[in-house]
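2 proteins. here.
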Amino acid sequence: MLNSFLLLVEAALYFGVMVTLFRFRHRIGLGVFVCALGAMHFLETYLASVFYVALPFGMVSPGSAVLFSGKLVMLLLLYIKEDAATVRQPIYGLLLGNALMIGLVLVLRLHEIAPLPKGKLPDIGFIDQMGWLMVWGTTLLFVDAILIILLYEKLGRYLRKALFFRILISVACVLTFDQAGFFTALHVVTGAPIAVFFGGWFAKMAAALAYSTMLVVYIKWFEARQIPAPRGLSDIFETLTYRERYEALVEHVGRDGLTGLLHRGRFDSDGEAAVGASLRTAKPLSLVIIDVDHFKSINDRFGHAEGDKVLKSVAALLGEIVDPEDQVFRIGGEEFAILCSRSHSVARLLGESIRQAVKTSASTSRFDITVSAGIST
């Protein structure tokens, strides 16, 4: 119980200090955050190789469960709030720095070593072991960083409004992959038992839950500004950032500025494609046209601002009533169109339900709002 509590305290301390440095990055510079992140790497690897505590579900190293998991979450935070061009810098720095350390150790072997008093000699074997584990761990981290960005982006298509689950699933999946990769090297180099793998995995899943919770709280309470635009396309990280922005732009382009529905140009192109697909597959395709009755008189009597509110309210109702696979367009001033894979009778029921929904929603309005519906299959 004490070990579990101490691990939680360590995670909270690590997260608190790191996000404080990150929060003040605009005053003290992002380099302070990055240096602190890199400074923990040796301790993280050292603890992961020799320092373990017993928990009910197995043996756990704070270096792996707390420090490495926290580092991965910090890199994800850096990606979310800055950009991929920034997050690549600590990754490349750690990888190249560890490679340099291995190179220097190889040169150090050539020295004629003078013993210190009491016969103390440097433990080159320990440095070798730590060096190779650090290089392997950083290589895994490089792969982990790419995977977590890919997964975070992919999940954004389905969980864009569920930030906690988007982060939790991304972190948990990548930590599972990393646990398998790092334990393999650890077992070869130090002979770590299989209990280390399972204990470490359970601990990393708990760390994923704890860090994801803290990260979402931090982002929502302390980070309010939008994600900045990408700066270039020189490597895979920046390509990922650019693609996410590009897909968001493509999604925005082609939509009506007032209602947010697909506009007339999309109706022409998507309608032609839908007709072609219907002919090829012999599946039904229905077109439902919705027209707001007496819309001109609403504009004339109450003003264009009220008319815009009517159009937006009708568009919102259409979005709620139709199925997710149906397409809704604004094709004219007060005209809307729905493309749906339904038979004529079902499309008629859809049109009637829209008419009734608009009529009911307008019961509290200053004026009556009704629509007419036409169906073609």
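next one coming up
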Amino acid sequence: MLLDITQTILPVVQVPLLLGSLVLFWHIWRFTVNPFLNPSGVKELPYWIPFFGHVYSFFWNSVELLESGVDYTGRTHEPFAINLPGTRLYIVTRPRDVTDIFNNQTGIDNDYSLREILLAYGVTSDGLKRAWHRPQPGDWCYVPNNPLNPEQMCFIKMVQDGYRKHLLTPVTMDQMAQVFVRSLLENIQPDNISYCMAGDTHLFSIYALSRYAMIEASAQSMFGSHLHEIDPEIASHMLAFNDYAWQVVMRYPDFFGRLPVSKPRKKMMAIMKQFVGRPVSSNSQANAFVRNVLAGMEITALDMHSRAAMMLMIFWAAVSNEYNGTFWLMAHLLHDEALLKQVEQETEAAWQSGQLNIKHLTESCPILDATFNEVLRHKNAAGAMRRVAEKTRIGNKELQPGSIAYIPFHQIHTNEEVWGDNSLVFDHTRFLKRKSLARNASFRPFGGGATYCPGRTLAKQEVFSAIAIILHRFDVRLAEVGHGKQQFPILNVKTPSLGLNGPIKGMDVIAEMVPKQEK
């Protein structure tokens, strides 16, 4: 009978009807029958187009997609899966599951993300092979009793170990912080902030101020004056690159160099090639970590393109979060007069005999600290990726090898079981009322496990210093522009995030900043 009915349908309708029936059958099997037969498998978030899966939703608005996945599990926060062409992502948001992923050293490949980013930045396949090669006697890169690498680690591990030691050793971290603060003091003063003017006298763009001052300071604290010697406009070039660096990491196809990132990337690579191509002795103003990386590159005999790509990636990693963190802190202070006054009182006490005491700033300003933690929680739509190397059990679910475990920070930072019913609301007092929240497994602004960011303490010092300098040198308040109070800037969650998100394009905070000596 079904055949008879089918034969009465016009041929032009038969093919779409058949295809639609096949897709419906596939959908029922994959998302209803298969999960029932395989209860230990991770549930997939349903989709209708085979192969392509969730690719459009993921790149258009990943936060919205992942939130719908959490809803699909009944907000139990059990792992669920989304599919991109050729890749399955297991989304992990439950605190104990997140901890298990970060701490797993056997079933999870913790180097996956780093390898992918290095390749995306342009490190060659030969460069990658050399970077992960562990020196053995007789090798081209083996140096007996190497003071730079006494444990004969591969270059990548040597860099990671050196980065941790440099940023977690008080002496070297303090040296870097002092250079950073000196640059901020130079670039955030009444006679030197024309780069962020917003029209009338005393009106300034907080976003432009945060971006330029923090990038300049990072360049100085890492490379001394060397990048400025190559190109005095290094901060502008890096900002232009950083605005679209996500296109590099996501490996957007670049047809004829037409991507927005293409021109600034080419410029930054040219600068970095000049920098890494100079004798190490000519880069003496760079900090000890950067000098050690340059020396290690020479021993490992990396090609110049790979050296430049790695150095650009290191610079990018250092600047990706600081200026957005500074911007959002200032935004919340300016939109909350009471909070602004409290933080100003705290930070002013860190100025002693005309000098900024960074230790006091980071240890004795609880309201500033709580507000910063809330910024890290509320403005972060990035995530951590790990490759599943072998069958791995997380809770009562089994992750299959070859897939990717993805930990989205926005979803773990808004888990209502941890953060309460107001998890979507910015409320700095939550970290004052419950100080243990800063150590909660559901608070992961700096990742975790083997890749727990060693620069977290330095980043805090840098952001706090910028806030303290602004509030010490200027009377600041939210400017009156247009009609009524300025709208609070909206978080940009549509652009793929690699750290703290910025505001959507065109949004800003305009502040009236009057130098205190003018009063």
